[in-house]
Amino acid sequence: MGEVMEIPAIWIQAAGCTGCSISILNADHPNIKNVLIDEILPQKHVNLRFHPNVMAGQGEAVLEVLSNTVREKKKGYILIVEGAIPTSENGLYGVIGERDGNPLTMLSWVRDLSESALAVIAFGSCASFGGIPKGKPNPTGCKPVGEVLEESGIETPYINIPGCPPHPDWFLGTVASVLLFGLPKLDDLDELRRPKMFFSQTIHENCPRRAYYDEKKFAKKFGDPGCLYDLGCRGPVTYSDCPIRLWNSKANWCVGSGSTCIGCCSEGFLDEVSPLYVKLEEAEFPREV
Amino acid sequence: MGRIVIDPLTRIEGHLKVEVEVEKGIVTQARSSGMLFRGLEIILKGRDPRDAQMITQRVCGVCPTPHAMASALNLDAAFGIDDKIPDNGRIMRNLIVGAAELSDHILHFYHLSALDYVDVAKIRDYQGDDQDLISIKNFIKRGELGPFVPRYEGDYRLPDKVNEAAISHYVKALHMRRKGQEMGAIFGGKMPHNVGILPGGVASTPTVDSITNFLWRLKEIKEFVDNVYIPDVIAVAKVYSDYFEIGKGCGKLLSFGVYDIDGKEKDLMKRARFHASGRTSLNLDYEEVDPQKIREYVKYSYYEDSSSGKHPKDGVTAPFVGKQGAYSWLKSPRYDGMVYEVGPLARMMVNYVKGNKKVKALMDSALSEIGMKIENMFSTMGRHLARALETKLLAEAMEEWVLSLKVGEPCYVPYEIPEESEGIGLVDAARGALCHAIRIKGKRIDNYQVITPSTWNVSPKDDKDQPGPLEQALIGTRIKDEKNPFELVRIVRSFDPCLACSIHIIDARGKEGKVFRII
């Protein structure tokens, strides 16, 4: 057995709901134990040094892990951010810990940790695009990670993996790809910095109910057979591979359960895809069809 | 004596800070503070009421499913269909929420709490042939121990065999909780943040194969709960039996009840539920819940004082950053002006004192095996035990529920959004009493208020200066080792708070004390 390469990773949570972390725990092949304990690829182990829900420690000791990683692994660790970044009131709407009696805002954490990271993964719709906390009237001035980085002049490359929550495969596939082939090339990402391998087609293109749409057979209420377009399905404007990937160890997916797609992977989630249960052309929002 | 900072407190959901004052090793005052404000209630204003069900799930990604249920009940009431949900819809809602709760309780014990009691580092010397433990041993030998160190050192007391079994089960439990999420997806589309539960019922329709898929995953979880989870909790409870005396709390418990057995009664507190609603206290009397007596106070919260003392239906979310004297983003919900703890302990105790025979038999038998009395349930370990026993009862009941689904029968009833209306949805989430309240004007949300279980449990002091349940549980605790204050984190986690947390211990003489850093 050769030397195992350790890839340090730090996962922090800002204005979100922890749903992205719960989704990662739902990974099946590899499962989350494989990810944390085993070599995710031969001779490669992701060393998750900081994760608020998983790690054993607490307090000053785990904050030291953050500063040690920044110091010892400069440009050598992956930063994963879950949640949007509150920026109003200098970020005081979201605080994690304090230094010298002063609150440390999520805004300052994201800036400090991204600066020295090899790459940043904005995981979930909140981190990628602002998500629900950025919904009108955006009471806490939430911004996506990429916007915070660009405004702060931080040039660390970042990848957006949207979804509310995102599929665990989208994360693990992205990480595996970085480990195998290095940071994504310009051509691997779309104009919203999403990996094309997961987000290049709309839900509508691969939907098993697509034949109903083409034949203009539309469900009039939940539980009916037919295309769910009239009930407000956002599949035609939402890019992701949900219909072919399926969710929760392939148990099901949103449209598979008889529900509409609510557009949770869209750049415009929430404001530009809602009201969620109104037919696309009747809803009052800037459409991107 | 001095100021000790533990910040952040991990393995819970969200962002919270707790300050504790210590005199001669004993906690004399405690302050718990929610450290994240997203303003979802403000974001909800003016939107289509149907979207509330999707938006409010995002209050919490660990327990979105009960939010879906509370919101659906709330909207059912506001839309005037609260007595019209088809039985299939009612049962499938119960199954989706139940699946999430099985998953959540297993996660809480093994992945959020157990690391305070088990010693992963000991697996370095493991000699057996359990493949999971061997892979952990290899992991430890590689030397990069994140996320299992740093940690508190000292009070790990489990005998080697029990310790090894618990760690092997930590891995097995990861698969079990995932299966719970798969069950939720079978009827709810995906997890977390299911799309199945809707006002009017559920989007999904049961089929023979979806019922079978659900049932056999459930059987696997049930076997795990009966033969692994419950024995592990009892084994830990026996070794850490002093925790039946630590973290007692406010001694008053409240539950809205959960899992509708009947869908026709409009008054949710009178509705027949698998866990009945009610209140109890140290005197073990049963009392009913009158939702009119709930008020939220904000004297110590970052909200305008004018918004204090309101019923959730009239609740106002008016943030006030930097308010003098305030220390939390959480409001303080109180019942009839009094402090109540919510959660699995409240559900089990309320149903115990109400005379639920299954609950009583199960609790009496577990307590007698550990050598404890019913009064000991008001404690850190009592909360873990209640959660485990409740999981067992729920898994048993779900088997009956899933087999009572009727293929081909309706699961959903259509409705019109009224011009003006009000609603309230009261139901227990995994972590306790959850309230959603809506006012609709012009077919839009005029006001939407949510009171989460952790708001009850982790609330700051109220307008009468009464500390919240967690604060009361911390006060009076003796800390053996101020550098490794296991007692505090074990108490906090026993509540299963939905907030990441930081604990500060401040010298009672003031904030100028010497600062010790916790390793």
3D architecture notes:
The complex is a heterodimer of chains A (about 290) and B (about 525). Chain A is an alpha/beta fold. In chain A, about 25% of the residues lie in helices and about 15% in strands. In chain A, the strands form three sheets. Chain A has a five-stranded parallel beta sheet with strand order 2-1-3-7-9, with helices on both faces. Chain B is of the alpha+beta class. Chain B has one domain: Cytochrome-c3 Hydrogenase, chain B, CATH 1.10.645.10. Helix content of chain B is about 35%, strand content about 15%. In chain B, strands 3-2-15-1-16 form a five-stranded mixed beta sheet. In chain B, strands 12-13-14 form a three-stranded antiparallel beta sheet. A two-stranded antiparallel ribbon of chain B has the order 4-5. In chain B, helix 4 (about 85-115) packs parallel to helix 7 (about 210-240). Mean pLDDT of chain B is about 90; it is low at about 500-519. At the A-B interface, strand 1, helix 1, helix 2, strand 2 and helix 3 of A face strand 1, helix 1, helix 4, helix 5 and helix 6 of B.
